[in-house]
Amino acid sequence: KNEVEQSPQNLTAQEGEFITINCSYSVGISALHWLQQHPGGGIVSLFMLSSGKKKHGRLIATINIQEKHSSLHITASHPRDSAVYICAVLTGTASKLTFGTGTRLQVTL
Amino acid sequence: KAGVTQTPRYLIKTRGQQVTLSCSPISGHRSVSWYQQTPGQGLQFLFEYFSETQRNKGNFPGRFSGRQFSNSRSEMNVSTLELGDSALYLCASSTGTGESFGQYFGPGTRLTVT
């Protein structure tokens, strides 16, 4: 079993829909990242959180440390949100990230 | 501040050759981590350097090595290239200290081994 599990693996939504991507992990972590990767490969770190909730524009990330679960929400989705979203956990004090397999999101008009 | 830069962006090598990739972190960041991304294995941690010392290492063979210079720039080297080494190699920098610290990714180097 992978240490970091994401669901769903693939997601298709229509523009304007509310989207939720889930991440569950089985190890103790010091922080969790949500990353966005567009075709071409570049990765952007959307959020790093260790507790509670963070919001940036139409993106919201939450984490429940006790349940070892995090969610990424996208409100009013747009075609430019189409990308792969990756959950990654930081364990220990060194900068070692363990990654989920990613969720491929496609938002259509 | 300038972001993380990686050179070269694209590289084609032949089996058996060796390759060196470079990563320049954000100014002030002392930690550089390297990751390999392949369609089959996804993103995997290679190693992390902090203040010129390897602080953490993933499960890769000894053909994969790295180093960090006093200005925090880092290089990774892959010797005796295999077809399976074809991948996107990403580096990320962070301050490397504190309770938790964000990582900033470079654009990656896409290596193709033929």
Report the portion of residues of chain A in β strands. over 45%
| Total of helices of chain A | 0
Q: Describe the biggest sheet of chain A?
A: 6 strands, mixed
The largest β sheet of chain B comes out as: 7 strands, mixed
- Rg estimate of chain A, integer Å: 13 Å
Described by the principal axes of the CA atoms, the overall outline of chain B is globular
Structural class of chain A: mainly beta
Low-confidence stretches of chain A: none
Q: Bin the strand percentage of chain B.
A: over 45%
Radius of gyration of chain B: 13 Å
The helix/strand class of chain B is mainly beta
Could you report the average pLDDT of chain A, rounded to the nearest whole number? 92
User: Into which percent range does the helicity of residues of chain B fall?
Assistant: under 10%
Shape designation of chain A:
globular
**What's the mean pLDDT score of chain B?**
92
Find the count of extended strands of chain A (DSSP E, 2+ residues): 11
What is the N-to-C order of secondary-structure elements of chain B (H for helix, E for strand)?
Answer: EEEEEEEEEEE
Order of helices and strands of chain A: EEEEEEEEEEE
Tell me the helix content of chain A.
Answer: under 10%
Total beta strands of chain B: 11
Which chains share the greatest interface? A-B, 23 and 28 residues
